[in-house]
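Entry type: protein chain
Record version: 2
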Amino acid sequence: MTQQRLITHLRHVDLAVPDFAKQLDFYSGTWGLKAEHSDSGLAFLAAEGSPEQYVVRLREATDKRIDLISFGAANAADVDTLAGQLAADGVQLVGEPDTLQTPGGGYGFRFFDNEGRTVEISSDVAVREHRAIEEGESIPVRLSHVVINSADPEGTRAFYEKHLAFALSDTLMHPRMGDMMWFMRINAWHHSMAIARGPHPSLHHASFELRGIDEYMRGTGRLLRAGVEKIWGPGRHMAGNNTFSYFLDPHGNTVEYTTELDVLDEDTWHPHVYDFSNPEVSDQWGTANAMNEFVAQRSFNDPDKGLFVAPPV
């Protein structure tokens, strides 16, 4: 039986990287985030339009990895309830719920998912002073969604449905390869997470919402002019109906500019199964370079070296 949904939204994705300075320069300069509360070897990057204290955290480390993916909860009671349910179900907690020592404080805990990624659940984090992104500003408004590669995507989908009450929005399939990607939601946004079939657990991509089509295109063009490697786009997906431009950060993580992700009526929505071999499924506009095995492999990323090892901070 599916658990009651106690998480409310996606907060941030935390990455460990060997070349910290280069990565920080990319995200705080070219990509358009704002570094705040940063220290030696640790940087918290906020989106100007988001109330979250930060949407990306960078940590200097020997090994490249996802440090954690963070989700919000409505209150401390829900945090405690979730921690209790996970522990009762045999999920390994990194620690019991406690006061958070990260910017904005709050109350939360961390645990390992079925493949060993660290996940954080938190409530009562202070709201960051943010602003409306203005017309023509080609910087991220918020973190839209995170997509993970999984060597056991069916098991990963089942884990997030059972323990965190994620709901399936849509599925991508291919006639030769079967089901390939599952779009999962925790609120009315079409997806806050997606799970891609991959050779190993790793980050597939992190996606950032821009103000509108014009700002999205301006941002895409700004990155191209800056010489950032584009791997796919610009275009518009069918699942989620959102625009996409995928780039590589200096450490080979895929990051996306997007806008206009669908907001669903959860009471009436029925998941679709889309055939990925149909070109309109991957790009309704027909403007993106063709999706093929070479493009897909760029988002497999390096195997995550942080599985079942909690980040030090």
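Comment: The helical segments are 20-30, 76-88, 153-164, 213-225, 279-282, 293-298.
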